[in-house]
Amino acid sequence: MHDLIIRNGSVCDGSGIPARTADVAVDHGVITRVGRVTDRGRTEIDAEGHLVTPGFVDIHTHFDGQVSWDPQLTPSCWHGVTSVVMGNCGVGFAPARPDRHDWLIGLMEGVEDIPGASLSEGITWEWESFPDYLDAVERVPRVLDVAAQVPHGALRAYVMGERGADNEPPTEDDLHRMRALVREGLDAGAIGFSTSRTLTHLAITGAPVPGTFAAEDELFALGGVLGEAGTGVFQLVPLGAGGEKVDDPLGEITWMRRLSAAVGRPVTFGLFQNDNDRDGWRELLQIAEDAVADGADLHPQVAGRPFSVIISLDSTHPFHKRPSYKKIAHLPAPERRVAMRDPALRERILAEQPENADPRSALFPQGYERHFPMTATAPDYEPAADQSFHALARRTGQDPEALIYDFLTSEETSGMIFRPLLGYTEYTLDPIREMLLHPQAVLGLSDAGAHCRLICDASTPTSMLTHWARDRSRGARLPLEYVVRKQTWEPARLYGLRDRGLLRPGYRADVNVIDLDGLSLRSPEFVHDLPAGGGRLIQRADGYAATVVAGEITFRDGEATGALPGRLVRGTRSARTAR
């Protein structure tokens, strides 16, 4: 008798081959058979009419603090994710000297928009070294697996103190100590090293992330540790990836190419289309492909939908820095909404200019050509240009800002506005589709756990299935088997997690059973469920009949079962590969 049998599902095994009707048998947390299973199971799931896939692997998350207090790691667990990689973009919480806790929190709050008060209350700080951090993470039961990378920002601050935080160059002794700590982290189970070089990543003080201006000797010294250890991925957000203009658009990929070839380890870097260089991404993709011949292994990390913000009275909006609005900003959102409908206050707010605007806002086009109303159900992440508030204002002869104001304050609307920042230059997702089809590209950039008041792209796994494989109407779709592969075997293989990502005997039994016809994203909602009452955007989905982690059912019909089989994943997994 098997521990678990999933019967009669349409098995899309993660390799990219066509789906087939089959049973999946599980014993001791491992898949033991895929095909016709005549034996019985202690537990059985009837998957007839459902899609059966490997659990999804999200390689770009920021759960570094949330792992202290949330065993479910919401919202990722609601979208079929069974393994996550954290410690991205050079920010994290280890290594950490006791007197640097507040500074690390301020760095994470500024870069990733996670409320500092929530981090202060929720993080347990049971560690100083990176190995101690991994041990603390391992002690907390959770619904899914987590893996971590050594973050450059925390590393610099630990070794160099204020000099590191201020982006001063390291001494030879500094480099020696940082190299030793990266190796210590890898030996303890880190699966990579991360850094950030984009000028859009700023601490809460407005200072750039430590490592932003690191010279090649520092980058190659730290990357070289991965080569010496024979394990780990070098992850970064390069200069220009945040939309900022750069003098040498190919400068970053040039050193990345040399680094990967020199150390023999993969480099993955964030890549979006941006308005300042609308076609530059194609050249970067081509260079990544050509670099294979030089022994380099470059993986542009691309998103499944535009990098955007969700505008609402709970998060950010065009009026939040205007003097008259700031006088009522302390009120709960429902009371603010009522107050803002007062004609006199409306007139004052619309007439004012913002105070102390965020300097990063200058990177993105002004005006309302890319502000789109979100419906209360079935959010559309590929709206046409004629759906924007700018287009609506032109058609009706109204002021677009007044239209947005009324949309945000009305009781008859969702009160949420979709505002793409990167990846939507041409009002189409065709460039993202082209990126997703590139042989070197890997799906990532969900930022799950981060940008709490601005986005909820942790739901990307669901929109990959609904938008790209099933519903897209404004262009070509992607094959279902390909979409599943991009979220399972490919990201797992990149990070050396070779015991998962495929539904084949011997692989870890991380499985999703999905009602693909009924799969849908709910509208985002703003909740205050973080420690200290911190607020964030969440987004749930309907259609996940079951999610299985290590052979245990963790979710049924979107609700947690109470099972907590997730664990810390340390280091490179077995060398098993798909054929």
UniProtKB/TrEMBL annotation:
Domain Amidohydrolase: 44-555
InterPro entries: Amidohydro_3, Metal-dep_hydrolase_composite, Metal_Hydrolase, Metallo-dep_Hydrolases_sf
Cleaved signal peptide residues: none
Cited CDD domains: D-aminoacylase
Name assigned to this protein: Amidohydrolase family protein
UniProt lineage: Bacteria, Bacillati, Actinomycetota, Actinomycetes, Kitasatosporales
